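BUG: 3D viewer hangs when loading the predicted structure for this chain

Environment: internal workstation, default settings.
Expected: structure renders.
Actual: progress bar stalls at 90%.

Input used:
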Amino acid sequence: MKKVFLISFLLIMSMSLLVGEIKFHGDGRVRPRLDQKFDENGKTSEDFYYFYWVRLWMDADLDDGWYFRTKLSTDGPADFVGKFGSPTFDGVRGWTADHAAHSGHRGIVRFNEVHFGRKTDKFGFSMGLLPFNALTNPEYDLHFYPVSKSDIPYYTLNNNAAAGFRGYYGVGPGRLNASLTVDNNTGNREVVDQRDQYSAFLNYEVPVGNMEIQPTLIASLGAEGDPSPVTAGFNFTPPKISGFSFQAGAYFTNQNASVENPVTNSGYLDLSNFAPEDSAAYTGKYNGPGVHAQLARKVGPGTVVGWIDYKTINIEDVSNSKNTTLMWLMYKYTVYKSDFGAFVLAPTYRQIRQKFGDHQYIRNKIELTMHFSFK
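Structure tokens produced before the viewer hung:
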């Protein structure tokens, strides 16, 4: 019986190898960081610590464009396992201290991407837990986290992914992309007037000469009393000039629905501490622009990458707007690279600066990322 089982197992594996290709690749990072925080009165805290993460992807190519992909990693902010010598992040219970001694804490591995579908030159679709390219696209942050103190909140808090559906289709000279995500699942049979929160994403990638222009739109819809912002704009990629690569974007968000409880989160829409304590008339309505500018250039053996984001959120019935500036400067140097992987060093300076009336918040992150990847 054991021989029959073994032969059957080997036969199934052989058939799998014939009809599809499975690849594994992954990466690991260690990131020492000096973390400084300031307010209008000066420095409020300073800490030095180490972040670390490990991620593993499995890609299955089923032929003719059909695929399956999953990512295993810790379900903590930005996939980080945590800090050396600190409790790990449990995606269900939050930061906990009930697993092991501090020096032996371990991350809990979860499926942080699970999606399948088909990709061709003309069209494609996918569904499941989908990744989003939000690291250098602040439109996601402006839409979902308009006043967050995190520098890249969608990437950090959502692990750069969301559950939903996605598709693209070649239209004219460009490509139309559409996505629908389920932001929260609060509807049920007992409460008939309660709806889930959804967000729709649309963008059209179109080349214009040596440039690429991408008009974009994000719209969220939920039950009455939930925020329903709409954010529109465009991304712009001009040709290289003197070795510099550029990217820019401009966006505008508008949230015109009256929010029942503006100091709590609704889906991914972070409205906590949005209004000052004296704004009793606050309705949760706001609007404001955001801009993004990024450049990169090879310098010496590595590449310098820098960008700046700025957004202003104007709050209805509140005299002051909330202004947020993010500056990011990084130098990426590949120490070693082969057919099997690479080791990259990336010293980075990040600063987020917010101003709301007389109140000011500044956070500096000075860090060195040591990045191993394998394939």
